[in-house]
Specification:
Layout: E1 5-9, H1 11-20, H2 27-36, E2 41-45, H3 55-64, E3 68-73, H4 77-86, E4 90-93, H5 113-125, E5 129-134, H6 138-147, E6 151-155, H7 157-165, H8 176-195, E7 198-202, H9 210-213, E8 219-224, H10 226-235, H11 237-248
Parallel strand pairs: 1-2, 1-8, 2-3, 3-4, 4-5, 5-6, 6-7, 7-8
Bound molecules: pyridoxine-5'-phosphate.
């Protein structure tokens, strides 16, 4: 099995900073600590409402991130223009609703096919890898491949919600609802590998529910944020990153 990489989503360092509108905690320092602790890259989501990450974060991080710099973004012309000028290593296209607490569902690739295909080409033409955040569904994987995107990011949220709602031994006594969601992830990854599109995964992953996702065929990159930043309050950011890297192994 080739190495699975971890990009740490540091949005919630900015959430804490924006709570007071000051200068700390500093996203640059956060990114440095994550990479020094072994993370393979940094992910941020520049939301249209700028609730956490700000434009200046996106620009300054470009200068210091050494691994993969992955920018999550909606199909918004304003954000697309910023992303083109910043040129992260990778963009991940996500759906965005103003009222949501976090990204709720995957992209509707079929409904937005023409626009997504256009944006994929524009970014690939300037050397930026393009990933599409989608539900673990066969049709979404197939349509993603047709857009010309380099990879998909499988939305693991439904599995994580089901797994987190069960307090018993996940591996030994897995409830049917958790197994169903996990199987959806495995099948979507299997199909993606079959048709030749890269496979990332993320959303809601934590130290308890992560291990089972690692068995998804062809999985290459994980994007994990909230659980790492939450855990860092108690053990520090470096230790929180290392705990997850230990589970990922390799
Ligand atoms: N991947 C995508 C596309 C996301 O939108 C998010 C949340 O910003 C994540 C991964 C990380 O999710 P979490 O913060 O729950 O680990």
């Amino acid at each position: 099995m080739s190495r699975i990489t971890l990009c740490v989503n540091i949005d919630h360092i900015a959430t804490l900073r924006q709570a007071r509108g000051g200068a700390y905690p500093d996203t640059m320092e956060g990114a440095r600590i994550c990479e020094q602790s072994g993370a393979h890259g940094i992910t941020v989501h520049l939301r249209e409402d700028r609730r956490h990450i700000q434009d200046r974060d996106v620009i300054e991080l470009r200068k210091i991130v050494r691994g993969t710099y992955n920018l999550e973004m909606a199909l918004s012309d304003e954000i697309i223009a910023i992303a083109k000028s910043v040129r992260p290593d990778q963009i991940t296209l996500v759906p965005e609703k103003r009222q949501e607490i976090t990204t709720e569902g995957g992209l509707d690739v079929a409904a937005n096919f023409k626009k997504i295909k256009e944006v994929v080409k524009q970014f690939r033409d300037i050397g930026v890898v393009v990933s599409l955040f989608i539900e673990p569904e066969r049709d979404a994987v197939a349509r993603s491949k047709e857009t010309g995107a380099d990879c998909i990011e499988i939305h693991t949220g439904a599995y994580c919600n089901a797994a987190d709602a069960f307090t018993g031994n996940l591996e030994r006594d897995m409830p049917a609802g958790v197994k169903r969601e996990l199987d959806r992830i495995y099948r979507a990854a299997g199909f993606a590998r079959e048709i030749g599109i890269g496979i990332n995964a993320g959303h809601g992953l934590n130290s308890r529910n992560l291990a089972l996702v690692l068995a998804a065929p062809g999985l290459k990159e994980l994007n994990i944020g909230h659980s790492i930043i939450s855990r860092s309050i108690f053990v520090g950011l470096a230790a929180a990153v290392k705990e997850l890297l230990d589970i990922i192994g390799g």
